[in-house]
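ESCALATION

Customer reports they have been waiting on this structure for their group meeting. Please prioritize. Original submission:
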Amino acid sequence: MNEAILLLGGNEGDRYENLKKAVTLIEKNAGVVQRQSSIYESEPWGFETDKFFLNMIVIIDTKLSPETLLQEIHKIEKRLGRKRVGKEYASRTIDIDILFYNDEIIALPTLQIPHPRLHERMFTLAPLCEISSEKKHPVFQKNMTTLLRDCRDTLKVYKKNLK
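Update from on-call: job pushed to the front of the queue and completed.
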């Protein structure tokens, strides 16, 4: 089995319900959820909109290769109404990113692991630190607590009381 750490988020539709459905579909099609963070609300990162995001982290055990896992994630996103338009950041019903796959470093045209911007984003690091603070980034050789402390992102991230 392989450990994959995924970031789920979205800011369109019923945000909470979309996260719940995504977790269910991940369990059905990608791997067994071992741990999941609380849900966090955050300002949009990389573009302007008044619709805040809900985000969470799930850690799964998966038999899928990284490439096959990415294909399954794209199917889940599409099933939940995600429409990919260009390469610009935009509002979306659901977005699922592979942050880590074991401790592997993967650099393919369609897949980069660890996620290349995770250390720049409070909305990723806050829930990640909640459930895997000592996880070491295989490129930077720093744990998540250190990356959170050093992060320069000033956008607001709030833990929600949902579950």
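Sent to customer with the following note: The radius of gyration is 15 Å.
Escalation resolved.
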